[in-house]
Amino acid sequence: MMCARCDQPIQGKPEPVTIETGSGVSGTVHVCPTPCRPTPRQTYPKQR
Question: What pLDDT score was predicted for residue 25?
Fold first, then answer.
């Protein structure tokens, strides 16, 4: 299983985190049981 925070395989028991949105819908993601660093996310394509 991959960590939703650091995008690495989870070592040990995953920690479930429930994310609620304004529409009343919620989803559960899994993160590492130990603190991990978030992966930088690319939000806009790089310009050449």
Answer: 81
Q: How much of the chain is in helix, strand and coil states, percent to nearest 5?
A: 0, 30, 70
How far, in Å, CA of 47 to CA of 32, rounded? 33
Average pLDDT over residues 6-22: 89
Q: End-to-end distance of the chain based on CA atoms, in angstroms?
A: 34
With a cut of 90, say whether residue 23 has pLDDT above it. no
Judged by DSSP in three states, 41 sits in coil
Residue that the structure tokens 């395989």 belong to: 9
Closest by CA to 18, choosing from 37, 4, 38, 1, is 4
Q: Indicate the pTM of the whole model.
A: 0.66
Tokens for 32?
């590492």
